[in-house]
Amino acid sequence: MLKALRDYRAAEQDMRRRGRVALGINEKDMQALRHLMRAHEQGNNLSPTDVSRFLSISTASTTALIDRLVSSGHIRRKLHPTDRRALELVPTEKSNREMRELFGPMHQRMLAVATALSADEAEVVAGFLQQLTDVVDEKPASTGQTDEVSGAC
Fold it and tell me: For residue 78, what are the domain limits?
């Protein structure tokens, strides 16, 4: 079971790498772009400070990241509607189109796999994944012992 999860994770990481290469952006840029797009879909435009906090990077790194995404045509800077001193970062139609083209078909195939499960199967899988998520999110003190399953610390 855990091998299947490792295989899935490796395949997903490779898919994300291929997406970054196709978009011509790096990992942090992709994380920022996805965060900006999610916020925009919910009716919110984020500021450079929001991006800096989300990525836990310095203001200088944030400025460089934003400059790259603006130069590549993935986002645009926009003055805040009520605070003329503030900026909002808005994903462009180019970003929306490229993301749909790159990831839309794969997301549809994933949805087909998920919807093929019975309600009981989906509940078991969701519960299993949530339990693994809870385990991974825990921050236990390191004991120096190896993981019995993989042999990793």
Answer: 26-91
